[in-house]
Design brief:
Helix content is 52%, strand content 12%. It has 336 residues and is α/β, with parallel strands linked by helices. A 7-stranded mixed β-sheet has the order 2-3-4-1-5-6-7, sandwiched between helices.
């Protein structure tokens, strides 16, 4: 499951407005037998305590709603790191914690000063000064709160991956038919969850084969280039392959209607084989209805593949039954 159940993060002005509004509704009744000076002190201390505690509670709620990153499953840790930079998130949360402590110190100082004043007017002015100091701190937090809001919007949309059932990861170039295959090999009424990333999406399908439940992951498209040159979208696919795959279904579009040359697709397939030598990889040629028999024979003659190739038309379901037998066979237990 997605470990990011992050609470709502308000704007600085919103945080101040709510805290001051709630404080304005506060019951300020004190013992009528107290002197006017003592009444004034108690009322103002109650006000500033309420403001400070409300803001401190909100800050600590935000900080604690983020998980302990070092305890995350490696899949989620690496995914988080490439998308939002874990070190930066920790720094932002540390800054909020620092402000939490500063507010406590300012509160203690203001309480001491209020208790030292004799004039009710001076007591009221100290409360106003306290509000000003707190407002200044919260306004300085605004950019950090905005950054954390952006981070939150990314993390709460990450896929809810199960680590307790075996996973088939579908990989290949963009537009080769990965999503079509995932939808086709899921159950008749599949549960397909849509998780938007920055400009791409990932689909998770579920199916049962021989009484064993499988998770099928459709990864963002990869391109044929060095790992260090891959963008954040592509790296998500690499992380999924690295931590989730019990088997990899690698799809090639020999018709090149995906927009990418066959040679580039084959180079990527070989790169994935080299990257993940211990993970079984099924090679699938999709869209074979869009390529002539002669052209397909030329490709197969020129390229030497060390394994069988499954020929399918994912949108029509052709070739799928034979593929399923091989795809789901000899997989037991949960993910690593």
């Amino acid at each position: 499951m997605n470990p990011f159940k992050i609470t709502y993060i308000p704007h600085s002005q919103e945080l101040l407005d709510i805290s001051f509004h709630k404080t304005s509704k506060l019951d300020l009744k004190v013992n009528p037998k107290f002197s006017s000076k003592k009444k004034a002190r108690l009322k103002e201390i109650k006000r500033i305590n309420h403001v400070a505690q409300f803001i401190k509670n909100k800050i600590i709620k935000i900080v604690k709603s983020f998980p302990t990153f070092d305890k995350l499953h490696p899949f989620y840790y690496e995914l988080t790191n490439i998308l939002v930079n874990v070190k930066n998130v920790k720094k932002l949360l540390g800054s909020l914690t620092g402000n939490y402590n500063v507010i406590g110190k300012i509160l203690n100082k203001a309480v001491r000063r209020i208790r030292s004043f004799e004039n009710p007017k001076d007591i009221a002015q100290e409360r106003v000064r306290f509000y000003g100091r707190i407002s200044s701190i919260i306004y300085r937090m605004d950019k950090k709160l905005e950054e954390l809001r952006n981070i939150r919007s990314i993390l709460i949309k990450l896929p809810s991956v199960s680590f307790d059932i075996p996973t088939i990861v579908v990989a290949g170039y963009p537009n080769v038919g990965k999503s079509s295959l995932v939808k086709n090999i899921s159950s008749a009424t599949p549960k397909i969850d849509y998780y938007p990333f920055t400009t791409k999406s990932i689909n998770i399908g579920y199916t049962t084969f021989n009484n064993l439940r499988f998770q099928i992951l459709d990864t963002p498209g990869l391109l044929d280039r060095e790992l260090l040159k891959r963008n954040k979208i592509e790296l998500q696919a690499i992380i999924a392959l690295k931590y989730l795959a019990k088997k990899i279904a690698f799809i090639i579009d020999p018709s090149e209607t995906c927009g990418y040359p066959i040679n580039n697709q084959i180079n990527l397939y070989r790169e994935i084989c080299d990257f993940f030598p211990k993970i079984p990889i099924l090679l699938i040629f999709n869209k074979i209805d869009l390529i002539s028999k002669e052209r397909l024979e030329i490709i197969l003659e020129n390229e030497i593949f060390k394994q069988s190739i499954f020929f399918i038309i994912a949108t029509q379901g052709k070739g799928i039954p034979k593929l399923l037998e091989e795809l789901f066979n000899n997989i037991k237990g949960k993910n690593n």
